[in-house]
Amino acid sequence: MPDGTSNEKRNEEESVSAQALAAENASLRDRMLRALADAENTRRRAERMAQDTSKYAVADFARELLAVADNLRRTIAAAEQRAPEPDGDAALLEGVRATERALMHALGRFGVRKIDALGVPFDPTLHEAVIEVADESHPPGSVVQVLEDGFTIHDRLLRPARVAVAKRRAQPSSSPDDDDAAAGEGLQSSSSRRVM
Q: Is 65 within the bounds of a domain?
């Protein structure tokens, strides 16, 4: 009988040991699969960062060059407003225009594009509203004037367009009492805002 008991114990121990080894094997396999997935995610993230770096590497440089483009544009606008002088200003002006075209072409080769803002609805992701103007010829909330051109680089905003936006039209009130009530509500809401 002792041999039968010892065989049973040995079988039991082997069974427990096999179960423990199977559980450890499953745990190690799970950890390995997680490590492989993490390595793949890291590789993809690194590839994406490398692409973004090469795509947007010139963004800071391009942002600095936009000031030069603005000054060239202002020079051209100022020269066009004054009376032409016969002493060669026309050739100088044409040289400034050619310089501006070359600069904009060079920026365009690196994905820098001007934002067409005039006449379009105001978009806070592309425009920076500097002033609201009463202009009945444009729909409310649309860009009436571009004060400074905005630019994108590929699909990202490089500099927002600084714009003047048409004011919302005031709703005519039906009676003076409504105006007083509205003014009272405005005072209450502004005072409650100050408390917060």
A: yes
pTM beyond 0.70: no
Split into its structural domains, the chain has a count of 1
Q: DSSP for 38-51? A: HHHHHHHHHHHHHH
Per 3-state DSSP, the chain is made up of helix, strand and coil in percentages (nearest 5) of 60, 15, 25
Angstrom CA distances, 99 to 68, 70, 82, 111, 172, stand at 10, 12, 20, 19, 51
Mean pLDDT of the chain: 82
pLDDT confidence band for 174 (50 / 70 / 90): low
Distance in angstroms (rounded) separating the CA atoms of residues 164 and 140: 11
Burial of 181-195, coded b for 16+ CB within 10 Å and e otherwise, reads eeeeeeeeeeeeeee
User: Domain for residue 40, yes or no?
Assistant: no
Q: Indicate which CATH number applies to the domain containing 130.
A: 2.30.22.10
Report residue 145: phi and psi, to 5°: -150, 140
pLDDT tens digits along 139-156? 899 999 999 999 999 989
Say if CB 68 and CB 106 are below 8 A apart.
Answer: no
Strands 156-159 vs 151-153: parallel, antiparallel or unpaired: antiparallel
Strands 127-133 and 161-166: parallel
In a domain, 106, yes or no: yes
Domain that holds residue 103: 59-166
Angular region, 155: left φ>0, alpha ψ -120 to 50, beta rest:
alpha
Contact 100, 76 (CB under 8 A): yes
